[in-house]
Design brief:
The complex is a heterodimer of chains A (182) and B (310). Chain A is of the alpha/beta class. Chain A has a single domain, classed as Rossmann fold (3-Layer(aba) Sandwich), CATH 3.40.50. Helix content of chain A is 27%, strand content 31%. In chain A, the strands form two sheets. In chain A, strands 3-2-4-5-6 form a five-stranded parallel β-sheet, sandwiched between helices. A three-stranded antiparallel β-sheet of chain A has the order 1-8-7. In chain A, helix 2 links the parallel strand 2 and strand 3. The termini of chain A are close together. Chain B has two domains: 142 residues, 3-Layer(aba) Sandwich (Rossmann fold); 151 residues, Rossmann fold (3-Layer(aba) Sandwich). In chain B, helix 2 crosses helix 11 and helix 5 packs across helix 11. The longest helix of chain B is centred in the C-terminal third of the chain and has 20 residues. Chain B is of the alpha/beta class and 310 residues long. Chain B is globular, with a radius of gyration of 19 Å. The chains are: A alpha/beta (182), B alpha/beta (310). Chains A and B meet through loops of A and helix 1 and helix 11 of B.
Chain lengths: 182, 310
Amino acid sequence: MQKRILLDGQKFQITIKRLCHQLIENHHDFSNTVLIGIQPRGPYFANRVQQELSKILGKDTIKKGDLDITFFRDDFRRKDGIVSASSNNIDFIIEEKNVILIDDVLWTGRTIRSAMDALLAYGRPAKVELMVLIDRRFSRQLPIEPDYIGHQVDSLNSQMVRVSWKETEGEDKVILLSESNK
Amino acid sequence: MAAEKLSTRHLLGIKDINRDDIELIFETADNFKDVINRPIKRVPSLRDITIANIFFENSTRTKLSFELAEKRLSADVVNFAASSSSVSKGETLIDTVNNILAMKVDMVVMRHPYAGAGQFLSRHIKAQIVNAGDGAHEHPTQALLDAFSIRQKLGSVAGKKVVIVGDILHSRVAISNILCLQKLGAEVMVCGPTTLIPKYISSLGVKVEHDLIKALNWCDVANMLRIQLERQDIKYFPSLREYAMMYGLNKQILNSLDKEIIVMHPGPINRGVEITSDVADSKQSIILEQVENGVAIRMAVLYLLASQRD
């Protein structure tokens, strides 16, 4: 297994800060904007963005929720085994709000398609935007593009992108894994 | 962490599933409970699946609950009631079901007056079977939702003491409940007149008690069953009034206990017989929570079974 580091150390932190400033550019003081992390890995990223935004704006009222998409996936009965569901924690109204959907890696776009369906079960947002830490370019199976991108990478389908977080894995880092015999 | 998938293709009875299966169903039901409390209560999971509800016996709650669960999972649903069908023209069970399956049905939810009807069907047809009650044998989804309701109210089922009161002899709910609660580590007692308690019930590892007050003082949860007059071919007790006096739960008895117990009832209630109105509507009763949980449990069962490909 070969590993290539895509993001770590200071570069990782700068990327998060840059994304936050881009968000502020469009959403000002976040009075009508909410963050939604897509389960299971998106909420870690969303947490970090929420902390960073609070620091920059000097307020701790930025709303953040977690969205589970398990029951909205389009590969039910098409792949072996089932993905166990995570929890939904959205304790605010998304009707007429600007929603930033947040996930760690964007690949085929199918997760985001499911997330948009799942999100609409909570109401009709004014606008939905997509923010991802890693964009695996040229691998989309649906017409979906992110509005905010941490880092873009060209990758093969056989490769894997793994994002680890300080809170859970002990280190902020993104690596690209590939089979060594390929 | 529970298992990833069920160990069985059909849900015929609690007897055939293990503790991991039950935990998995509960964890999945937690998620579906969240779904049915949202503004939009529908998820598209079972979009391309057709389910036939075949009821050879009357039912309101179970049928409605299954149908609601199926619709909230976006499945296509066909309903069939034996009273208005060709069964009354002499068609056999296999023929009836094969005809329905020829219409490309993926799952069958069946209630039947004979014990083992689900088992029989599962050996002869390809579709997945969910038993919604077979005679006096099993009613697995009822047992799952009862245990799920206890878990929700008390935090867990393990170590809890549950007494099942009433017509144990004719009750599929009792058998499924005993098996399910025991698999989850609860202690179970049955209570009722001698004539309505099967002779060898203690071989299932349950306590037997004929005195209601003693049973209630022992338990954390009391599950009050209905007297199934429609199944009773002979008289098992002198009169309903006498039964209500000996085994009916009223507010006075409930208040005289030294602890607060939880009161459950699988429905339909015969108010004034096994349970009085003031108990059924009291804070200690979780009868309506049971009904709400029923939909979530059935969604979980259907979802988990459907996720298994042939």
